[in-house]
Recover the amino acids of this structure.
């Protein structure tokens, strides 16, 4: 039986993290949007995933979940909470960049925290599938 190759799913996870990172930089540097405090936490959790998953994909390292899963799982929780704030009736304010419940920009009806949530969930699923395939 052929041994499971983790390279392809980890490379896809790297691509997801890279697109999310580039997108967040475009929103702030290209469009001039000021990230709120929860956006900064999501960035702090997403940016290292580019390198961590990239190196793991190159080395076919399935045990990367020990490093990457805590980042992606916590990022999922923060992004889900941030997305919930935007649809709830609360007016959550952050200390940086204004209100966390404010929707600054949308793409096909999805806010920036919604896009972040999708990226974190994809990466988390990829890591869980990779770990379970050992």
């Amino acid at each position: 039986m052929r041994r499971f190759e983790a390279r392809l799913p980890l490379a896809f996870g790297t691509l997801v993290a890279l697109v999310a990172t580039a997108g967040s930089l475009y929103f702030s540097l290209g469009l001039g949007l000021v990230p709120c405090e929860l956006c900064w936490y999501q960035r702090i959790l997403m940016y290292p995933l580019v390198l961590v998953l990239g190196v793991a994909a190159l080395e076919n390292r399935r045990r990367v979940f020990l490093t990457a899963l805590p980042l992606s799982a916590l990022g999922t929780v923060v992004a889900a909470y941030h997305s919930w704030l935007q649809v709830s009736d609360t007016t959550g304010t952050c200390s940086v960049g204004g209100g966390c419940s404010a929707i600054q920009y949308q793409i096909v009806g999805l806010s920036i925290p919604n896009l972040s949530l999708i990226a974190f969930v994809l990466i988390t699923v990829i890591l869980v599938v990779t770990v379970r395939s050992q």
